[in-house]
Structure formats: C-alpha cells, structure tokens
Amino acid sequence: MEFAFLGRQPILDCDGEVAYYSLLFRRNNVRNLPLKDLMPGDASAIAQLMHTFDIDKTLEGKKALVKVDDQTIIKTDLSILPKEHMIFELTERSSFSTKVSNVIESLMDQGFEFAITHLLIDDVIQKRDEAFLARFKFIVFNVRKLDFDIYHKHEMLFRRLGSTLVATKVETQQGFDMCKRLGFSYFLGYFFEQPRIIKGKKLAADKITLMQVLTKLRSDEEIGEIIKLIKYSPDVSLLLLKFINAAGFSAKKEVDTITQAVNLLGRQKLTSWVMLTLFTAKGESQNQPLVDSSLMRARMMELLCDIVKRSEYKSQAYMVGLLSLSDAIFKVPMRDIVDKGFFSDAVAAALINGEGELGKILKLALIMEQGNFKKIEFIAQKLKLPIEHLSAMFQDAFTYVREVKKSMQKR
C-alpha cells in the first residue's frame, strides 16, 4: 500500500487564533526532511488531495490556501474542486498572462477565491487594473524575501483597496511584530507551528475503465451505460465517491451511490474528473507520450471510418485506437486487458491480432503514423483520394490531442 503525505500548517490572525490552513505536499515522511511543495504546476497533487484525504476532517471546517501555478490554472479544470474549502494561491513562479487572467476571472465569477504573491502585483495592474487586484482575497508576502520597495510602493493602494495581507515565513517574534505594524492580517511560519504531517492511503484507478468511460462520454453514450461501466470497477467507483463527497457537491447528505455521483456531476464535470484522474495517475511523466499517441490514433481511426465508408464503426474504432497502446502504457499484456470482458469480439480481435474491419483501419492509422510517404501515396490512390486529404486528417488528429488536453480547463 502506498501512502501520500500532506503538510498542514496553520495561518493565524492577529490574536493568534487559527483562521485558515496552508496545504503542502511531500514525497515521504522522513523526519528532519524539509517539506517539498509539489502543488505548483502539479495537477496530480490536486487529484491526490481529493482522492486520498478527508477534506472536512483535515481542514476542521476551515479554508485552505492551495498553491497553483499558471500552467495548473490553464490545464486543470479547477471548477470541479470545492470552493467552500479552497483558496487558490497563484505562486511567484507563475506568469500572469491574459489567458491566466481570463481563467481566474471566470472562476472568481463562479465564487472561487484567489490569493496572489506580492511579486505579481505590478503584472496584475499592468495587464488588468487595480479593480481586478482588489478581487484577490489575499496578497501573500514572503517575509524572507520581502521587498520593502514593493511594499511601500503599493502601501497606499493596499489601504485604498482594503487589501488583506498575509505574511509567510514568519520565524521570529521580531518578524511577527514587524508584520503587524505594517498592517498584515494573517501570519504563517515556523515561529507559530511547523507543518503537521497527515498520512493517507493512495488509491489507484483502473486506467482501462477510465479510458472506456472517456470514450463513452465523448460518443454521447447513454448515461446509464456509463454508470454501469463505472460500477464494474470498484477502484474507480471508490475514487469517484471519495472525490464527490470531498468536493461537497451535495450539501444534504453524503453521496453513496454511483448513480447519485454521476447525476450530480453531469457529463462535463464527469469528463473533467476522468481526465484529471487519468492523466495524473502514477507514472504520468513516463506514459504521457504514449497516452498522447493513443489519443491521436483514436481520432485518426475515427476519421478513417468516414474515408473508407465504414461510419458504423466510428465508436468502436475510437476505442481500438485509444486502447491500442494500453499494453505499453499499463505494462500488462494486451490479452489480459481484453480479457477483462468489457469489449466486443470485433474490438478484441482488432486489439489482439489486428483482425477484422477494425484491424484494417488500425493498420491504416499505423501507416499514417509511421509517415511512410510511398505507402500513404499508395493508399490515397487506392481510395481515390487526394493525398492532401490524408495529410489534413493527420493534422486534425494532431490538433485533437491538444484540444483534449486543453479540455480540462473548459467551464
């Protein structure tokens, strides 16, 4: 059994009372090892938080600052997370671009709260305006790196906007007193308390089931069939129930059935959850190129069905393409994957032996991937198509992969 380790550090008010928490992630629980903050740019940490820990119990009814960087904001659908529990802190390693600004504004309009490092104040004002800066719940200063020129430059602005300032890395009484004199409202640091380490059991999801669910969602499959598929996988079911209860989608009572969970999420947010879980699973850094290739192959096979006049196979063809590299991705024999019993005979024959109509379409997709111009030209002549038509199809599939990866940010 693998474990995840969460560092929870209190954020105190001027009276020394715990007002919020800051959440950090670390790789292990070795003593005297500095906390490793994994959140900025790491969507897997967000998934780990939601799937591993009991949010209500961990936060004791309070909100937490959760660090995110610009890439996490752009690539991850943060709207599926519980706004009543989280304040997203845009870190100093982030770039405040127009795209990031637009996503943040959209989330703010939905009721999500954001904090921002003091190092990005000028960027926010230049690219937006002072009114947008005022929408951030907190402005966070690292006392160790406190640039007094930046503070004094904006001191009057803070007062005019009513900005709430948070001091982090407070390690001495002198530093605490100084921050209070400067008008800070909240304080975080080793002077008050070191992070408390909370251990949780990591749960793994059946990637095969997740890929099947993603395919069915995309093909507008009846929601009942999607529910049935999730129910067939105990680990996916457990992860989904842990997530939806942590995210607080139902204020009335705990959600304890897959039907309730799917109906509460809806297709769009269920898709976002599946992709977050699928693409942040263990081994992502090693497997991501293969996952990208499988998505591209799935799209090419879908498009090839129209070209070879086999449109009735489109949904199955997409499934074959999506799973055709799953033996390499999941490091298990293809026959073991197919033997799970979720697939039709036609899909199984194509995946194992490249047989049948779906097998033929898979072989065409492989030729396109390999870029063998002579073979591609021969295929174009045989199908009586301009070769440019096949080139456009390849480009469409390439673009599709980028769009799928971006789709986690859709609202």
Task: Detail the topology: elements first, then pairings.
Layout: E1 3-13, E2 18-26, H1 43-52, H2 55-59, E3 64-68, H3 70-75, E4 86-90, H4 98-109, E5 113-117, H5 121-127, H6 130-133, E6 138-142, H7 148-161, E7 165-168, H8 173-182, E8 186-187, E9 196-201, H9 207-218, H10 223-231, H11 234-247, H12 258-279, H13 284-307, H14 314-323, H15 326-330, H16 334-338, H17 345-353, H18 356-370, H19 373-383, H20 387-406
Parallel strand pairs: 2-3, 3-4, 4-5, 5-6, 6-7, 7-8
Antiparallel strand pairs: 1-2, 1-8, 1-9
Helix pairs in contact: 9-10, 9-12, 9-14, 10-12, 11-12, 13-14, 13-18, 13-20, 14-17, 17-18
Radius of gyration: 25 Å
- The helicity comes to 40-55%
Shape: elongated
The secondary structure category is alpha/beta
Order of helices and strands: EEHHEHEHEHHEHEHEEHHHHHHHHHHHH
From the N-terminal CA to the C-terminal CA, the straight-line distance is 35 Å
Question: Low-confidence parts lasting 5 or more residues at pLDDT below 50?
Answer: 28-41, 407-411
- Spatial strand arrangement across the major sheet: 1-2-3-4-5-6-7-8
| Strand runs, count | 9
Largest sheet: 8 strands, mixed, barrel
Number of contiguous helices? 20
Strand content: 5-15%
Mean pLDDT: 76
